[in-house]
Amino acid sequence: MNILEKIMQHDSAFSKSERKVAEVILNNPQSAIHSSIATLAKLSGVSEPTVNRFCRRIDTKGYPDFKLHLAQCLANGTPYVNRHVDENDGTEEYTKKIFESTMASLEVARQSVDINAINRAVDLLTQAHKISFFGLGASASVAHDALNKFFRFNVPVVYFEDVLMQRMSCMNCAEGDVVVLISHTGRTKSLVEIAQIARRNDATVVGITSKYSPLAEECNLVLSLEVPEDTDMYMPMASRIAQLTLIDILATGFTLRRGNKFRENLKRVKDTLRGSRFEKRDSDMNKN
């Protein structure tokens, strides 16, 4: 049952105010996709909390999640490209759709994240003797971004995109090492095998992956993000951005956990980079 069918089915359960929201959406669902919560509330003649109650009534987690379900309902998408974009969309239309669907996906991911798991992951990373970041395909770029962030933190960091190098690296793991494996689906056989190798060699394995996936079952700790994206059919986009955001969260937690003295070291790293860049000019800053 899609979201529009669910709205029609729940009609009798809606309050008078919620029914106003339903009518506006059913009359012009395409417009609702591109409306902010404030705009939809105004069009419906209700308050923003009423719109949120309406969204929860139909089993979505809030307005961003509702918009995501509505977009998925209306768009057939372009296979192997993007589920929110149609083949005949113009530049302005597909640009707007991608931004809006990505922002909605990030909000859904934010609401699904387990804060306790993030706190535990930060503990493991700050205490690690060595940290490895591995991913394949689209997730390899996320692992590489993690390397760029963590290598300046004065702890040994390993990154390999090649599967054989990943396997050999995990063969040399030891107790106190942390291996972070990144996979949206958690069904990549090579990464599952790498998790098994790392654990056999006493490393702690953290998975940034789907809950209950084969990879998740082999991890000591799972950081799961709910991103409704079928990467078997479409190019991975929102899931990768959510993963990059989670890496940024872990890096931020790492620096905060290490304290002021550690941040002084980061300042020195930044200072060494200044000579590699041209200074900003006042004329550049004042350009419109």
UniProtKB/TrEMBL annotation:
Domain spans labelled SIS: 121-260
Keyword presence, Transcription: yes
Keywords for this protein: DNA-binding, Transcription, Transcription regulation
Transcription regulation listed as a keyword: yes
CDD domains in alphabetical order: SIS_RpiR
Highest taxon listed in the record's lineage: Bacteria
Pfam families membership: HTH_6, SIS
Residues in HTH rpiR-type domain copies: 1-77
Protein name (record): MurR/RpiR family transcriptional regulator
